[in-house]
Design goal:
- Helix content is 41%, strand content 20%.
- The chain contains 15 helices and twelve strands.
- A hairpin with a 7-residue loop joins strand 11 and strand 12.
- It is globular.
- The protein binds NADP nicotinamide-adenine-dinucleotide phosphate (NAP).
- NADP nicotinamide-adenine-dinucleotide phosphate (NAP) binds next to helix 1 and helix 15.
């Protein structure tokens, strides 16, 4: 049995699902893969639980419970060391072959992740930000043998693995296209049904499909990060300025509080209705699509035939040397925390297998 120390940054939706999957899957993981993950540390933004020998399953599930109730992972609420000090602590404890898992949405973790990799540890990311910053800081994380990030795009669908396979077999990537946001997909289907944009936003928020501030989704930045990750993997050294992003709200609404934004969003309705109606006359629906080719991309609303399978699916397609006439298509259910966590777990297992 391979015992693998794990350090988890982030115990939100994805981190909690991951901990539950590890605890509930201990027996199949041992039988099928001969792996035992010892969760040495779990951290939220302010506190940490640590046990060099591995936290017990009871401690892990209690921490998940605490987070669900809005409490910190450490019941004693002791301030945690910085991420850099945590890496140091792992080194001092001689936890060789440790895997650091970043399931936060935090900015600025790049230096710590570099430190982790330089010390010979492995990294799994669901956090897109380290891969989507300036090319110069992000480049060391691409094609690194000890870094995996399946869940950064497609939320668990094997998108990164497929692209990695295409690159491994030297198949040139010509074009990448996809509907990469479940939230915007939901909003678009509400628009098809004649719902005003402001109401579709409010409904998506009420169902918990949006970020706490829906502008995070509507601005298209998250979709831009996803397509940038795919494009960079494909070999284009993209910067944010290479991808044109259409925001679904106007700049004058950018600085309002969330309630004020939701109140004012009705001023977006008339212009959007005009676009929906125009598409409808042509037998089309609007979908929020990301497209990338030859190192340049666009992210925004695009009319597509109403009856086409792509109108009703979260998908990513690759047009490549082998798949030129008919692109390779990956589609299916959109992201959720369980699938995203499963993507992270799959990466952790993959890293251990390759060690
Ligand atoms: N949700 C999905 O379906 C999905 C799909 C694909 C990818 N992702 C990505 O997965 C990541 C996690 O998503 P989520 O939905 O689980 O987010 P979330 O519920 O907001 O949880 C984020 C967690 O990270 C913690 N955190 C923030 N900064 C930290 C730091 N510097 N060190 C340690 N912990 C820190 C937060 O702590 P506090 O509780 O103290 O704030 C919280 O526990 C995001 O990057 C997201 O884009 C999510």
């Amino acid at each position: 049995m391979k015992e693998v120390p794990v350090i988890l940054f982030g115990v939100g939706g994805v981190g909690s699902a991951l901990l539950r999957q590890i605890v509930n899957g201990r027996s199949p993981l041992a039988t099928r893969n001969q792996i035992q993950f010892n969760i040495v540390a779990i951290t939220d933004s302010k506190t940490m639980l640590w046990d060099k020998a591995g936290l017990s399953d009871e401690q892990l599930l209690a921490a998940v419970d605490a987070k669900t109730q809005g409490l910190p992972v450490d019941p004693a609420r002791q301030a945690r060391p910085s991420e850099a000090k945590i890496v140091q602590k792992v080194a001092e404890a001689n936890l060789d072959s440790a895997i650091f898992v970043d399931v936060t949405a935090a900015d600025g973790l790049e230096p710590v992740l570099m430190q982790v990799l330089n010390r010979g540890y492995s990294v799994v990311l669901a956090n897109k930000k380290p891969l989507a910053g300036a090319w110069e800081t992000a480049v060391p994380f691409y094609n690194h043998p000890r870094l995996r990030h399946e869940s950064t795009v497609g939320g668990g669908q094997p998108v990164i693995a497929t692209l990695r396979y295409l690159l491994d077999v030297n198949d040139p990537i010509y074009q990448i296209e996809g509907q990469l946001s479940g939230t915007l997909g939901f909003i678009c289907t509400q628009l098809d049904a004649g719902m005003p944009l402001s109401q579709a936003i409010a409904e998506a928020k009420a169902k918990g499909f949006t970020e706490p501030d829906p502008r995070e989704d509507l601005g298209g930045k998250d979709v831009m990060r996803k397509v940038m990750i795919l494009g960079r993997m494909a070999g284009w050294p993209l910067e944010a300025s290479d991808i044109e992003v259409e925001s679904l709200y106007t700049p004058d609404l950018a600085n309002l509080s969330v309630p004020d934004f939701l109140g004012a969003a009705s001023q977006l309705d008339a212009a959007m209705k005009e676009r929906v109606d125009e598409a409808c006359v042509n037998g089309q629906v609007l979908r929020y699509v990301a497209e990338l080719s030859e190192g340049r991309g666009t992210v925004g609303l695009k009319p597509i035939p109403a009856g086409s399978p792509l109108a009703n699916m979260k998908y990513i397609s690759f047009r490549t040397g082998f798949y030129n006439d008919e692109p390779l298509l990956i589609g299916g259910k959109g992201a959720g925390v369980e699938m995203t966590a499963a993507g992270v777990l799959g990466d952790m297992i993959g890293l251990v297998r390759e060690q």
